[in-house]
Amino acid sequence: MSHARNLARIARTGIHTVPTAQALRDLVIYNGLYPEIVETKSALKLGDNGGGQWRWDAASTATDDLGTVLLPTGRSGAGRWVRLERGHVSVDWFGAVADASMTETLTSSGTDNSGAFQMAFNAAQALAVPIKLGAGAYALRKPIRGEGRSYFAAGAYNPPFSGVSRTQTLIIDDNQQAFPLFDFVDYQRTFFSKLAIRTVASSKSTCQIFICQRGATAGSMFELRDVNCWAIPGAANFVCSLYNAGCDMFVMDNSSITTYIGSGIIALPPAPGKTPKVT
């Protein structure tokens, strides 16, 4: 946007516009000539869906996380750009791009969004807000991990993941590491809704989609609501598993876990004496 057009927009809306989060970091404020509210069109590059509106907080010393807080380039001490929308965190704010697709060799193409998902998880946990995913297919090639005890006391807030619907939001699990795609330990509640997860395991004989361990926290719950998980493995002895060791309640509501090849599904029950609730 040209300087003249930007001045006209500021006069009309009171909002200055920049293309990316980095452009906002580099924005120079001269004696308050720029308005307090600035709009980014994208997160990392033009065309992604990570844009939004930010306000200047002269007292903030929060850590720059790309999605909710930005530290101006060259600045020391207080002063941050803080995203106005605070009721949730979007993976798109952290540079996630839903451009994945499956190949005939059972691998995924498209952007690896593992880093963006992990940053979104960390930010959402700190803010105690849910995580939202947009429409489209997101590829993940590394596990998303969280441990309640490493952040706060046992039973710390575990932000729920929620998509648009299980026919519109797809996570392609191309994680080839020896960890589950979602590995959460010692949380009161682990919750996924309105999305689908498709697991690719061409080089792994065993794949865990989720793991939820209670640890020392009593009263924990693992929930899948309107979630469709399925696997197309490459190995003959592939096992698609969901593991919720020690959870007090396991809920599947209008959800399914399916594998097309291999030795089936392992879905371990909650703690001894508990009964999983499947609806």
Task: Describe the overall structure.
By secondary structure, this protein is mainly beta. It is 12% helix and 35% strand. The protein has helices at 3-13, 21-25, 114-127, 148-151, and strands spanning 15-18, 37-40, 52-57, 69-70, 80-83, 89-90, 101-102, 108-109, 131-132, 136-140, 144-147, 161-162, 169-173, 182-185, 189-199, 206-213, 221-231, 239-243, 249-253, 256-259, 265-267, 277-278. A hairpin with a 5-residue loop joins strand 7 (101-102) and strand 8 (108-109). The longest helix is centred in the middle third of the chain and has 14 residues, at 114-127. It is globular, with a radius of gyration of 21 Å.
What integer value in Å does the Rg equal? 21 Å
Structural category is mainly beta
User: In percent, how much strand structure appears in the residues?
Assistant: 25-35%
H/I helix tally: 4
List the helices and strands and how they pair.
Elements: H1 3-13, E1 15-18, H2 21-25, E2 37-40, E3 52-57, E4 69-70, E5 80-83, E6 89-90, E7 101-102, E8 108-109, H3 114-127, E9 131-132, E10 136-140, E11 144-147, H4 148-151, E12 161-162, E13 169-173, E14 182-185, E15 189-199, E16 206-213, E17 221-231, E18 239-243, E19 249-253, E20 256-259, E21 265-267, E22 277-278
